[in-house]
Amino acid sequence: MVSVESVTGMLSFMTLIGILFVLFVLGLIIYNYYSKKKIRIKFFEENGLLFAFLVAVVSMLGSLYFSEIVGYEPCRFCWFQRIFVYSSVVVLFVGLYRKAKDVVYYVVPLTVIGVVIGAYHYYIQLFPSSGGCLQEAVACSTKFVFDYGLVTLPLMGVVSNLIVLSLMWFWWGKFKKDDFGF
Q1: Residue 151 in 3-state DSSP?
Q2: Which residues contact 98 (CB under 8 A, 6 or more apart)?
Q3: Residues paired with residue 147 on neighbouring β-strands, in sequence order
Q4: What pLDDT score was predicted for residue 149?
Q5: Which domains does the chain carry?
Q6: Does the pTM exceed 0.85?
Q7: Are 167 and 43 in contact (CB under 8 A)?
Q8: Distance between CA atoms of residues 124 and 106, nearest Å
Q9: Is there a contact between 56 and 160 (Cβ–Cβ < 8 Å)?
Q10: Closest by Cα among 157, 42, 156, 52 to 94
Q11: How would you class 97 by CB atoms within 10 Å of its CB: exposed for 0-12, middle for 13-18, buried for 19 or more?
């Protein structure tokens, strides 16, 4: 069986790569907003929905791995984050099956809410004295993972949601030939 450290290390590294991807997409959005010549990446436009679904599935499976196999008990904010990630998996699956261009209208709110909850949870973990939640079993400030001096489980959730959001931007751009973006 694969060790917890190996899985954690792999997911943490994927989170760092995800941060770079999100920063790249953000730069692309800013460039496309201010430039007359729009940069389009057809590969992500054509496959954005599939990749968004895969990222959401990996995020869901990662959360289940940590709670059900490793035994990390989720705190209150972890459960809130899971609600939006798991919902995104279902919505993305239906959108993928139907090749629905309007799936973006349902996925974007789920991912944005997930990002906000996850960002607050990450803040609580970085600054435990800032308050947050305290449960009988697990405090929201508990860091089960802290790799590279940056990556925690809530940050993994935030980044996966931001990647899904970025991929939805590409997917939406596939249908918006004149105005690339939301």
Answers
A1: strand
A2: none
A3: 151
A4: 76
A5: 4-175 (1.20.1550)
A6: yes
A7: no
A8: 28
A9: yes
A10: 52
A11: exposed
Long-range contacts, 175-179 (Cβ 8 Å, 24+): 175/101
Q: In this predicted structure, what is the pLDDT of residue 145?
A: 77
Query: 180, 34 in Cβ contact below 8 A?
Result: no
Cα–Cα distance, 92 to 174 (Å, whole number): 16
pLDDT tens per residue, range 36-76: 888 888 899 999 999 999 999 999 999 999 889 988 888 88
- Between CA 56 and CA 31 the distance in angstroms is 27
User: To 10 degrees, the CA torsion angle through 177, 178, 181, 182?
Assistant: -110
Q: Output the DSSP codes for 29-59.
A: HHHHHH-SS----HHHHHHHHHHHHHHHHHH
